[in-house]
Design goal:
heterodimer, A: mainly alpha, 2 domains, 77% helix, globular, B: mainly alpha, 4 helices, flat
């Protein structure tokens, strides 16, 4: 494995294991909120988008209906559509490969791919596929483990997992903050998302920041 | 079919449809520099918001807790140019230590 590939592979693997391990929390939470083992595993296999999955089990667990659960999850899933738009010109895949690529188009695969930008398109593609398949594997294995051990599992906070995930996102956005405009945008989005959290339904404060990015991009 | 099955299947179908639709937007749209600029900025916006929400909120409430210590450790690691696994691990260890001791 060349130097470039090993850097990409290392980034992919650490993201895959960190994020995948969080699947334990999802599996446990889903079962605790009334989803069956099969439904829990299907959500991880088919929806395969952590935020959307947590949203739908959260809404139904709190007594919400199927439609509001689906709507909240889908608003969060729009993010993945944007990632697909970003990744398609780099991946250049058609047919069945495009279907597979679409299924693994999530925060982590896109972010690792974009993180390899300086190493060239080949490294970006490797980052996307490694991370996409890696997260898919670990996320589903840990979902099953979490669902099976829902009662037995300890508090994920005692293991620092609830901080590892935002730290992983931070590690992914950090190298992208190259100009002052990038940094102002990032700080603006942090403040906006926090200010909107008590007001908007869960998930919307995150999606809404995409529109801030669009406005910032148009003003350039 | 109960609401849990409707939610499971409905969420999954729409999640895939959104992902697949994104991959099928015509490539020529990307020729415009403003579109490229927006594409570079969107991940910065969403990832920053995700960091904020996952660090400072709990069930739609703002909250400062052990996670701030964890993410602060990650910031220090990033300033020191630590590799990615060190960034994540330092956050987890710091956070777990604070959580378990207080």
């Amino acid at each position: 494995m060349s130097r470039i590939e090993s850097t990409t592979f290392r980034d992919s693997l650490s993201v895959s294991i960190t994020v995948g391990a969080y699947g334990t929390a999802f599996g446990a939470a889903a079962v605790a909120n009334g989803f069956s083992l099969l439904q829990t595993c299907l959500l991880s296999l088919l929806t395969f988008s952590g935020a959307s999955q947590f949203a739908v089990i959260g809404v139904l667990g709190a007594g919400g209906g199927a439609i509001s659960g689906i709507a909240t999850a889908s608003l969060l899933g729009m993010r993945n559509g944007l990632y697909g738009v970003i990744m398609a010109p780099t991946l250049k895949v058609k047919g069945f490969k495009r279907i597979v690529a679409a299924q693994i188009t999530i925060d982590e695969s896109t972010a690792v791919a974009l993180g390899q930008e300086v190493l060239g398109e080949k490294a970006m593609r490797q980052g996307f596929w490694f991370t996409g398949f890696g997260v898919f594997l670990f996320w589903n294995l840990f979902t099953l483990a979490g669902a099976l051990g829902a009662q037995a599992m300890g508090d994920i906070r005692a293991w620092g997992l609830d901080s590892a995930v935002p730290a992983a996102f931070l590690g992914l956005v950090w190298p992208r903050l190259k100009t002052n405009r990038d940094r102002i945008l990032a700080i603006g989005c942090v403040l906006f998302a926090l200010a909107m959290t008590p007001i908007l339904p869960a998930g919307l404060p995150i999606i809404a920041t995409a529109f801030i990015a669009i406005v910032a991009g148009l003003r350039k | 079919m109960n609401s849990f099955w409707i939610a499971t299947i409905g969420t999954s179908v729409i999640a895939f449809a959104l992902k697949y639709a994104g991959h099928n937007v015509p490539e020529r749209i990307f020729a415009h520099p403003k579109v490229q600029s927006i594409n570079a900025l969107i991940p910065i916006a969403l990832l920053s918001a995700l960091v904020a929400v996952q660090t400072f909120t709990e069930k739609s409430q703002l909250m400062i807790d052990h996670r701030l210590a964890g993410v602060s450790a990650a910031v220090i690691a990033l300033i020191l140019k630590a590799p990615f696994p060190v960034v994540v691990l330092s956050a987890a260890l710091t956070s777990a230590a604070i959580y378990n001791w207080f």
